[in-house]
């Protein structure tokens, strides 16, 4: 049998005064003897089932037994399968974010073919992730520059719904609708949404130097702003 010295605790006192249990504990290996220290300096020996003793000792920071018992028997609500699934999602999000960032870096450098490749990888492989819509915006801008304007405008129109309220896609769509579709009214509606949310899109230097729009789309926006 193990032994320990614990300070006086009201719960222990109530246990000592309780009547004897109706059933005997047959497995004496599960018994823990504890010497209870009273406030007047006296003490007495108390034997308790190990599981109950450990429960009493959990509140004592000095009890190595209580600490180890709590750690070994701590309930974990997350199953191994759930933990693995969470790790996989975290990995996919990190990988998609890296691809998106690389696409933006190539866009800033003016290499729109390379940017298109990275944006397309995010769209194709991680379309289940919400932020893949931002890759679709970058993909639409790159498509507009490399010559496939019809697909670029279709992408912009689709993303303007899924990302409604994202000013960049509304401004880009306004420029493309005016220049390539000659749809002035639709372009004005899109541009009104964009500039209410972010007035910077009335500044050509902002879309060129800060947002790194492709030259052809900057020119289209200029045509729309000047109605030329």
What would you note in describing this structure?
The chain has 228 residues and is mostly helical. The chain has two domains: 2-72, no CATH class; 80-226, Tetratricopeptide repeat domain (Serine Threonine Protein Phosphatase 5, Tetratricopeptide repeat). 64% of the residues lie in helices and 9% in strands. The chain contains eleven helices and three strands, in the order βαββαααααααααα. The protein has helices at 10-17, 50-57, 64-72, 80-109, 112-125, 132-146, 149-162, 167-181, 184-197, 204-210, 215-226, and strands spanning 2-7, 31-37, 43-49. It has a three-stranded mixed sheet. Helix 1 (10-17) links the parallel strand 1 (2-7) and strand 2 (31-37). Helix 2 (50-57) packs across helix 3 (64-72), helix 8 (167-181) runs antiparallel to helix 9 (184-197) and helix 8 crosses helix 11 (215-226). It is elongated and about 90 Å long. 26% of the residues are buried.
Ordered list of secondary-structure elements with their pairings:
Elements (H helix, E strand, L loop, with lengths): L1 E6 L2 H8 L13 E7 L5 E7 H8 L6 H9 L7 H30 L2 H14 L6 H15 L2 H14 L4 H15 L2 H14 L6 H7 L4 H12 L2
Helix pairs in contact: 2-3, 4-5, 4-6, 5-6, 6-7, 7-8, 8-9, 8-11
Features:
single chain; 228 residues; mainly alpha; 3-stranded mixed β-sheet; 11 helices; elongated; disordered N terminus
Count of distinct structural domains: 2
Biggest sheet descriptor: 3 strands, mixed
Low-confidence stretches: 1-34, 50-63
Radius of gyration: 35 Å
Task: Tell me the overall shape.
Answer: elongated
Spatially, the strands of the biggest sheet line up as 1-2-3
* Helical content band: 55-70%
CATH first level of the largest domain: Mainly Alpha
User: Any idea what the CATH architecture of the largest domain is?
Assistant: Alpha Horseshoe
Number of strands: 3
Tally of separate helices: 11
Task: Please identify the structural class as seen in this structure.
Answer: mainly alpha
CATH superfamily of the largest domain: Tetratricopeptide repeat domain
Name the helix and strand elements from N-terminus to C-terminus, one letter apiece. EHEEHHHHHHHHHH
**What percentage of amino acids are in beta strands?**
5-15%
Question: Could you name the CATH topology of the largest domain?
Answer: Serine Threonine Protein Phosphatase 5, Tetratricopeptide repeat
């Amino acid at each position: 049998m193990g032994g320990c010295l614990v300070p006086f605790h009201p719960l222990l006192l109530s246990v000592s005064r309780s009547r004897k249990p109706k059933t005997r504990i047959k497995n004496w290996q599960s018994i823990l003897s504890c010497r209870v220290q009273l406030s007047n300096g006296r003490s007495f020996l108390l034997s308790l089932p190990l599981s109950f003793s450990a429960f009493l000792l959990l509140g004592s920071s000095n009890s190595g037994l209580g600490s180890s018992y709590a750690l070994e028997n701590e309930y974990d609500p997350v199953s191994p399968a759930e933990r693995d699934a969470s790790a996989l999602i975290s990995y996919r999000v990190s990988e998609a974010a890296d691809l998106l960032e690389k696409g933006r870096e190539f866009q800033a450098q003016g290499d729109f073919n390379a940017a298109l490749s990275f944006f397309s990888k995010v769209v194709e492989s991680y379309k289940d992730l919400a932020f893949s819509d931002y890759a679709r915006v970058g993909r639409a801008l790159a498509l507009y520059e490399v010559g496939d304007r019809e697909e670029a405008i279709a992408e912009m129109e689709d993303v303007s719904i899924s990302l409604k309220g994202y000013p960049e896609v509304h401004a880009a769509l306004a420029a493309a609708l005016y220049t390539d579709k000659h749809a002035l009214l639709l372009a004005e509606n899109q541009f009104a949404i964009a500039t209410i949310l972010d007035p910077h899109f009335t500044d050509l230097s902002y879309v060129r130097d800060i947002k790194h729009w492709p030259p052809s789309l900057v020119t289209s926006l200029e045509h729309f702003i000047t109605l030329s």
